[in-house]
Amino acid sequence: MFPQKPQNKRHVYLDHGATTPMDAAVFDAMKPFLANEFGNPSALYTIGRNAKRAVDSARKRVAQMFGAQPDTIIFTSGGTESDNMAIFGMAQSAKGHIITTKIEHDAVLGPCQELETRGWDVTYLDVDVEGQISVDAFKKALREETVLVSIMYANNEIGTILPIADIGREIIKWRKQSRGGVYPYFHTDACQAAGTLEMDVEKLHVDLMTINGSKIYGPKGVGVLYKRRGVPLQPIVFGGGQEMGYRAGTENVVAIVGLGAAIEKTRDMGNTIQDLRNYFWEQIQEKIERVELNGPLLHGNRLANNLNVLFHGVEAEALLLYLDEYGITVGTGSACATGSDEGSHVLRAIQRSPREIESSIRLSLGKETTKEDIDYVMEYLPSIVTKLRGLNRN
User: Fold this and answer.
1) Mean pLDDT for the chain?
2) Which of the residues 165, 197, 336, 337 is marked catalytic?
3) Is residue 336 among the annotated active site residues?
């Protein structure tokens, strides 16, 4: 029998890697722009100017987080559009070469695969069993015709933090000896890193960087592409010339305001979440047999809030659905890949078998997660795993 459901069900959200709940202060900042302050920021009258000031203020906040200038911040509809803009916006010639990795989000892999059909050559760097790339392998992949490098800052499924600053330094060295000191340009998808890792673009040595609002306790449907001054990015959406000509279309003022407010709420969370994450993993190991951690060790290059756990003998989707009945929300990987029949490309890249991929759950904590939440989960998780293993044997 499955454990009896509690009369007072606790709701525990452990899928912050997919999206985060909106911070109350963010919602408060957005409210005026859902009602009276509805102006178009391109208009000259008062409510239009108010909207423009709000957008400009948000742009300055994001720029400060990046250690950059406001005119390098382009607002988009989210991480996917920002990644597409970075890749297609730099791929305007007939053909060229791109370097990326096998564990990128589909928002990067999809555009790269599309460019291959148009004659571009793409190198997909291998990763080790922790999802880490080799800087030496990257250096060997560089070519005279390499136009763009797109390597994520932190992986959304297994939490691996990649050596972005090291890659950036190697690119700077390469430029000094090749192609007149120009190519390649360096893009990183930093959606999972924002708010907990170093985001100063000068320290990271990046030319283009993506973040989105839904991963930093802001609204969905808004993102940012940082573009270093002088990078020859071409627009992929044409029309009214908004966002300094890089992204046409009336700005989503309310969402941009929310993202600007969220930037202020994402600092100094790492240590508390990491301690709680470590406690969670200790409890899982102590109370459940036949479990493994996918990705880096806890004290390694891993996001502070991330656990990706292989429960041998359990179907992950069944475990997700049963936990949901007890008010516990978890993920099975990238939310954007839900419904895919192929399973996680990230877990395949770290050499997990199809059966192991089908038995892996992502548990990603947030700033509001408490020890009481984890203890509640551990009241039910061991029994549910045991029961599901029994069903699979029958």
Assistant:
1) 94
2) 336
3) yes
